[in-house]
Design goal:
mainly beta; Thrombin, subunit H
């Protein structure tokens, strides 16, 4: 389907566990402090109880969805002087997860695949054309 659940990108959830009768009893279960205090624009993806997301400079994080425990993090070591040379400061808009791999488009033009269980770099390719 689409990122926002439907083609209208409404992000509406049809689930009924949270409703008018119990919404007032909800509270914060956990939070996560990103190691770099910059812009965050990614929507986490949940696969088998693990949340995968990105932060500034294309850093990737795997978190236990129930506890918020950091399972692993990956830093592609983007040169921080690159910010402002492209769109959107140092933001990264998230990852894709497929068949045990986490894919991230890195701010400096690399496309990388990580092992979803460990965060180990499996491969990296530069997608930019030298000029």
């Amino acid at each position: 389907m689409a990122h926002g659940r439907n083609y209208g990108e409404e992000r509406f959830s049809p689930l009924s566990a949270v409703n008018d009768a119990n919404v007032k009893r909800l509270g914060l279960a956990w939070d996560f402090k990103y190691p770099v205090d910059r812009v965050v624009e990614a929507t986490p993806i949940e696969v088998d109880g693990v949340l995968y997301t990105t932060g500034a400079y294309s850093m990737v994080f795997a978190l236990d969805a129930k506890t918020g425990e950091l399972l692993w993090q990956y830093d592609p070591k983007v040169w921080q002087g690159i910010q402002g040379r492209g769109c959107c400061d140092a933001a990264n808009r998230g990852v894709a997860v497929w068949e045990g791999k986490v894919y991230v488009g890195v701010y400096d033009g690399r496309l990388e695949a990580l092992d979803a269980a460990t965060g180990e770099l499996l491969w990296s390719v530069n997608t930019l054309i030298d000029s």
